[in-house]
Amino acid sequence: MKIVYNISQQSPLWRRSTAMVNGKQSGDGQKKHDRVPELKPGYVLAVDFAEIDEFEERARRFRIGDEDPTEFQLFRLSRGTYGQRQENNQMMRIKLPFGGLTADQMDALAEVSEKYSGLHRGHITTRENFQFHFVNLDDSAEVMRVVGRAGLTTREACAHTVRNITGCPYAGIAPEEVFDTTPWLTAYARHMLRNPICQRLPRKFKTSFSNCPNDCAGSNFHDLGFIAKKQVDANGNEVIGFEMRVGGGTSTMPRKADTIWEFARCEDGEYIKVAEAVLRVFDREGDLPGLLRKNLNKARIKFLLQKIGADAFREKVVEELGKEWADEPLDMEKLTQLAPEVPSDPVPDDGLGKAPGYERWRWTNVTPQKQAGFFAVTVTIPIGNISTSQFRELARIMRKYSGGHARTNQNQNLILRWVREESLPMLHRELLAIGLGDAEAGLLADVVACPGADSCKLAITSSNQAGYSMREELIKFGYDDPEVNKVSVKISGCPNGCGQHHLAGIGLQGSSYKVGKLEVPCYDVFLGGVGYAGIEKFATRVTRVAAKKAHLAIDRILQVYQAERSSPAESFVEFVERVGPKHFEAPLEEFKWVGSLAEDPEMYMDWGHTDLFEVIRGEGECAAGEVPLVRTAAAPVELP
Ligand code: HEM
Ligand code: SF4
């Protein structure tokens, strides 16, 4: 069936462009998938074992010097395998569209953690992936096979491709949702994976799907964000679709996305076609060749939107939709097919009652589903790190309580859905037994942090270690003020912002300063970000504090807020907005300064480290490409 694009109901500008849509253009972008691996029932993405064999062979050739290192690096990244700060060690990223995973997949991740990851743990990322660090390149193909047999792939988890697709973890169960976006997200993910049109984009491309205007998946800071909407058509029928936003991002240029399409229908795949047109325009750099590809640090689609504006970009998308490729029908039934989530059988009551802390955990970590009698439970995963035995136990718990399914979220936690109300006390006790029964999900102490200097080449500070320490300190502070507890703390080890500190109430960005020849690990403090709910404003930088005083700085910020807010109901973000972030500069002044090495040795060591701190930054592989990076690696510091 030919798709008729929903242009007439867009802005007047789009109506003017209709002629271009109808006038066919050809010769451009006629490429199709050449080899589509079979999609096994129940899997979200197709796994291609021949592709893994190819990876193994090329890795072997690279080892003996038979591969061009730059070409191999790009190929390796497109298969989800990153270099680390430590030579010969890889970070492997496993793609999880909508963060969804099964108990069998959890068992496969346990095997990876046990046999192949030097840290014997996995890490949930802020984009709902799983990552494993310290994997030997020679083992990478085997890791791909282990997860592949369980239906997971690392393909296009990195490099200049369509990265993992994040979604609201409550899709299908949220009382307020417009509709369940899971099958539509899945169709988009399947359509883009291995698609020749997006194998070497100017830069990576991150997509999110939200189920309602609350926009929990964060379309405003994604390259492409979908927000579920309903409309009534001319015949009075309800039609489901998406508002589409393009060009958001954080990092060194936080930018709010622009709405480029008010409503793209789901059922006939219009939203996928519009997205494909967006990608084709991006790939052509908006017909300004070299605009993006000349500097990979300024190559995200947001820079194109910034340059030409949303209206001109939209016109190009409309023009693109007039080409022949756009008329090819999509098999939406096949693309949206998914195994249903079915609750576990009821578990007989063990008669042990509620464990200590149950009521608080139930209050902060459990939310009712729209399906009566069922609940979604957030398993608080400190800093998103899961050990081998926890993987295995979680797989067992998922089978017992949540129908063998779970979803990761952007706060680096795990959501168990379809839990029966009567099972909640037993589930809590089982989670406590494996060290994952903490309350406070999504609240002050539930700190988010990127991997940082313990593995990442670009890091300045050990944000992962700082994350654990901040978490401990915030728990010790023991705030029981509900508005204070709603403040989010997110930490990134450098300005790239993988820990999403731009979106936090209190964000910490790794930095340093010099005292003589010595270097002090520091954090730039950002205040007033509003998380995922329809961001209007990113957090603003206030000042720089010593890393080892960051917890004291957070405490001071919260004290200022408590003492000066206009009423107990004024939220932290509203307060920062009212008084302005600079209001905090003076109260934080004392946390900037440190004594000499003899007086204050702790200040010269990063969190979790006992050696003197030094800034060592290498070339970032996340921005690897055909032209050299413009980013400058800081020179190694000479210590006395
Ligand atoms: C090998 C380790 C990593 C390196 C070298 C790296 C590098 C980068 C770079 C260069 C950027 C900025 C890109 C740009 O805006 O042009 C970035 C952004 C980002 N990365 Fe990573 N990254 C790494 C790991 C991670 C991890 C572990 C996560 C998730 C926890 C992550 C998630 C993100 C997010 C959410 C952003 C910023 C948001 C946005 O896309 O605008 N990255 N990363
Ligand atoms: S924010 Fe910086 S330190 Fe953290 S993972 Fe990203 S690039 Fe590495």
Characteristic terms for this protein:
640 residues, Alpha-Beta Plaits, 5-stranded antiparallel beta sheet, 18 helices, globular, binds protoporphyrin IX containing FE
Question: How would you describe what is shown here?
Answer:
30% of the residues lie in helices and 18% in strands. The protein is α+β, with helices and mostly antiparallel strands and 640 residues long. The protein has helices at 12-16, 18-22, 49-63, 69-78, 103-115, 137-149, 182-192, 270-283, 301-320, 332-336, 358-365, 388-401, 424-433, 463-477, 482-485, 550-564, 572-579, 585-588, and strands spanning 81-83, 89-94, 100-102, 121-124, 130-136, 162-167, 205-210, 224-232, 238-246, 258-265, 366-368, 374-379, 385-387, 405-408, 414-420, 448-449, 489-492, 506-515, 518-527, 540-546. The model is unreliable at 8-30 and 625-640 (pLDDT under 50). It is built from 18 helices and 20 strands. The strands form four sheets. The chain has a five-stranded antiparallel beta sheet. Strands 3-14-15-12-11 form a five-stranded antiparallel beta sheet. The protein has a five-stranded mixed beta sheet with strand order 6-7-8-9-10. Helix 3 runs antiparallel to helix 4 (69-78), helix 5 runs antiparallel to helix 6 (137-149) and helix 8 crosses helix 9 (301-320). It binds protoporphyrin IX containing FE and iron/sulfur cluster (SF4). Residues 450-452, 456, 458-459, 463, 492-494, 496-499 line the site of iron/sulfur cluster (SF4).
Number of helical stretches of at least 4 residues: 18
Shape-level CATH architecture of the largest domain: 2-Layer Sandwich
Secondary-structure content class: alpha+beta
- State the name of the first-level CATH class of the largest domain: Alpha Beta
CATH superfamily of the largest domain, by name, is Sulfite Reductase Hemoprotein, domain 1
- Going across the biggest sheet, name each strand in turn: 1-2-5-4-13
Strand tally is 20
Under CATH, the topology of the largest domain is which?
Sulfite Reductase Hemoprotein, domain 1
Tally the structural domains: 4
List segments where confidence is low: pLDDT < 50 over at least 5 consecutive residues.
Answer: 8-30, 625-640
Overall 3D shape? globular
Give me the Rg, rounded: 24 Å
What ligand species are in this complex?
protoporphyrin IX containing FE, iron/sulfur cluster
Mean pLDDT: 90
Give the biggest beta sheet. Answer: 5 strands, antiparallel
How much of the residues is beta strand, in percent? 15-25%
Quaternary structure annotation: single chain
Distance between the termini: 72 Å
